[in-house]
C-alpha cells in the first residue's frame, strides 16, 4: 500500500511540474515589481546577519538551489521564488539584506525566519524582523524609489506592483503553543487570539496600502498540526495530526477571509486576495500511506532545523517536508502553482 501510494505521489508531482512548466513562460513580467513579506517560508536570507538560531545559510540547505545555501529554509527555491518565476521575473527578488539601488524597482524580499505578526513572536530563538519592522524597511525602499522617480511616477509604479504576505504560523508555533516562553495561551482562547492577531494584521495591511500597495495577496496559515515537529512534540491523541493546533489556526483563517472581503468592499482602488494554504498539506497528511513522507528529509537539531553538513535524503521530490517545519522545493512548486492561478485574478 505504501509503495502504491508513493507511486501515485510521483505521478501527481510529475503532472504538477508539467503544468508549472506550461505556466512558466519567458517574456515581460506580468507586474513591474514584486514585494514579499513574511517568515521562513519565504525568507531568502534576511536572517543571515542576525543573532538568532533561526538562520540556515549552511548546507544541506540550498543543496538544490543555484549557488548553494543562501539562507532559504529549504533544499531549493521557496514558494516566493517560484511565484516570481511564474510572474515572469528572470531573476530572484533580492533580500532586503542584499538589495542594491539598481534592483529596488523590481522589488524586495523582507521576510524573516521565526517572525510573525506580533512583535515578540519567535524571539526565544533570537532576533528577527517582525512584520511591523518589515513594513518599516519597505518604507525605506519606498522613499528611495520616490527619490529615483519622483512622487507621481513612484506612486504609479508602486500601485502596479504585486505584494505577497506569508505570515502568521509563527504566532502559533513560536508563540501561542509555547507557554514556556509566552503567556498568550493563558491570556486568550484560540478564537480571541485569532481576533487579536487579525486586528493587528489589519492595521499592518493598511500600512502597506498607505505605502502604495494595490494588488495584495495574503496567505492563510497551513495545517501546522501536521508538521513533523508538531506530531513529534505534541499529543496527537491518536490522530494523524495535532488537531487542536489546526483548529486554532482555522479561527485565524476564517477571520482573515472576512478581513479580505472587508478590505475589498472598503478600498475600491485596491484588490486583495486570500490564498488558501491548507489544501495540499491536509489532503496528503490525511492519508496513512503518506506517513513515511512526513519525517523531513534531513537529520535535525533540537530546533527542528537540519544539522549542518549532514547528508539529506536522496529522493527529495518524494518528500513533502525538508526539515521538521519547512516544505521541500517540490512542495513549494505545488503551492506556488496553485496560488498563482488565484493571484492572476488581481494582476
UniProtKB/TrEMBL annotation:
It comes from the Eukaryota. GO terms for molecular function: hydrolase activity, acting on ester bonds. The keyword Signal applies. InterPro entries: GDSL (IPR001087), GDSL_esterase/lipase (IPR051238), SGNH_plant_lipase-like (IPR035669). Keywords: Signal. The keyword Protein transport does not apply. Residues 1-27 form the signal peptide. Belongs to the 'GDSL' lipolytic enzyme family. This is GDSL-motif lipase/hydrolase family protein. It comes from Populus tomentosa (Chinese white poplar).
Amino acid at each position: 500500500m505504501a509503495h502504491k501510494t508513493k507511486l501515485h505521489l510521483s505521478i501527481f508531482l510529475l503532472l504538477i511540474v508539467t503544468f508549472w512548466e506550461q505556466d512558466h513562460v519567458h517574456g515581460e513580467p506580468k507586474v513591474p515589481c514584486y514585494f514579499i513579506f513574511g517568515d521562513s517560508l519565504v525568507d531568502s536570507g534576511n536572517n543571515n546577519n542576525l543573532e538568532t538560531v533561526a538562520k540556515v545559510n549552511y548546507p544541506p540547505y540550498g543543496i538544490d538551489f543555484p549557488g548553494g545555501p543562501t539562507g532559504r529554509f529549504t533544499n531549493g527555491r521557496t514558494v516566493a521564488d517560484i511565484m516570481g518565476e511564474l510572474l515572469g521575473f528572470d531573476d530572484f527578488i533580492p533580500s532586503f539584506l542584499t538589495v542594491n539601488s539598481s534592483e529596488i524597482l523590481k522589488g524586495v524580499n523582507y521576510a524573516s525566519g521565526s517572525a510573525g505578526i506580533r512583535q515578540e513572536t519567535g524571539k526565544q530563538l533570537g532576533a528577527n524582523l517582525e512584520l511591523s519592522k518589515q513594513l518599516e524597511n519597505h518604507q525605506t525602499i519606498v522613499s528611495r524609489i520616490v527619490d529615483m522617480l519622483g512622487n507621481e511616477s513612484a506612486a504609479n509604479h508602486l500601485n502596479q506592483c504585486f505584494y505577497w504576505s506569508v505570515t502568521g504560523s509563527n504566532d502559533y508555533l513560536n508563540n501561542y503553543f509555547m507557554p514556556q516562553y509566552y503567556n498568550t495561551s493563558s491570556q486568550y482562547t484560540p478564537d480571541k487570539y485569532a481576533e487579536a492577531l487579525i486586528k493587528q494584521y489589519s492595521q499592518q495591511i493598511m500600512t502597506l496600502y498607505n505605502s502604495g500597495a494595490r494588488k495584495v495577496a495574503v496567505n492563510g496559515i497551513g495545517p501546522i498540526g501536521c508538521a513533523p515537529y508538531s506530531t513529534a512534540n505534541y499529543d496527537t491523541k491518536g490522530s494523524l495530526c495535532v488537531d487542536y493546533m489546526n483548529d486554532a489556526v482555522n479561527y485565524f483563517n476564517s477571520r482573515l477571509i472576512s478581513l479580505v472581503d472587508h478590505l475589498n468592499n472598503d478600498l475600491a482602488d485596491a484588490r486583495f486576495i486570500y490564498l488558501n494554504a491548507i489544501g495540499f498539506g491536509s489532503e496528503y497528511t490525511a492519508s496513512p500511506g503518506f506517513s513515511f513522507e512526513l519525517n523531513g528529509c534531513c537529520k535535525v537539531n533540537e530546533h527542528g532545523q537540519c544539522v549542518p553538513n549532514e547528508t539529506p535524503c536522496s529522493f527529495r521530490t518524494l518528500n513533502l517536508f525538508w526539515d521538521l517545519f519547512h516544505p521541500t522545493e517540490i512542495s513549494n512548486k505545488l503551492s506556488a502553482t496553485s496560488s498563482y492561478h488565484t493571484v492572476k485574478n488581481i494582476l
